[in-house]
Amino acid sequence: xxxxxxxxxxxxxxxxPLLHELYQQTPNYFAVLGNAVPSLQxxxxxxxxxxxxxxxxxxxxxxxxxxxxSVDYKLDxxxxxxxxxxxxxVRGPLQGQGWGPRCVxxxxxxxxxxxxxxxxxxxxxxxxxxxxERQGFVFATDAPPVMTWYAKKLGRRKAx
Length: 160
Ligand SMILES: CC(C)(COP(=O)(O)OP(=O)(O)OC[C@H]1O[C@@H](n2cnc3c(N)ncnc32)[C@H](O)[C@@H]1OP(=O)(O)O)[C@@H](O)C(=O)NCCC(=O)NCCS
What we know:
Number of strands: 7
Shape: globular
Oligomer: single chain
Order of helices and strands: EHHHEEEHEHEE
CATH architecture: 3-Layer(aba) Sandwich
Strand order of the largest sheet: 1-2-3-4-5-7-6
Bound molecules: coenzyme A
CATH superfamily: Gcn5-related N-acetyltransferase (GNAT)
């Protein structure tokens, strides 16, 4: 059976409750960072702050009607042509089923003019390092004591 493509929907303020629901269904991500799941108010404030930054993009990822997760990234950061992924989040109950790799692949096609994707891994998280390495990212730089950066050079891709 042919899989539907992953589609990206830019977020707006009215998406705050949906993003909050997504976070509530993914508590492990926040627990690993030692944080509680943000409240709806906090999610709204974060969105407001993000929308002030013209290079920042927050998008929901869908496969047909199914909400897979969200992605938060910054264009032309740190350098022109780079894209820094702040957060790629697959909805808790959907994790471990291969959606993450499909989302990364779709994101690459969604950003046809970018030449490099970067992502930071907090602390000692070998499973996260494995995940990004499997998507073709390689160690880029250390930002001690808590952050390690991974990057992937992008070739020519067809836009979606
Ligand atoms: C990282 C993330 C995007 C990967 O997406 P995914 O759809 O789970 O990806 P995969 O299906 O390829 O699974 C990745 C690995 O995590 C494991 N995993 C993910 N969720 C799991 C779960 N709920 N229970 C058990 N294992 C899980 C998988 O078994 C796999 O492990 P392996 O590398 O040892 O084989 C997703 O786990 C996520 O949203 N995490 C929280 C946010 C985050 O940390 N994002 C990355 C930093 S930007």
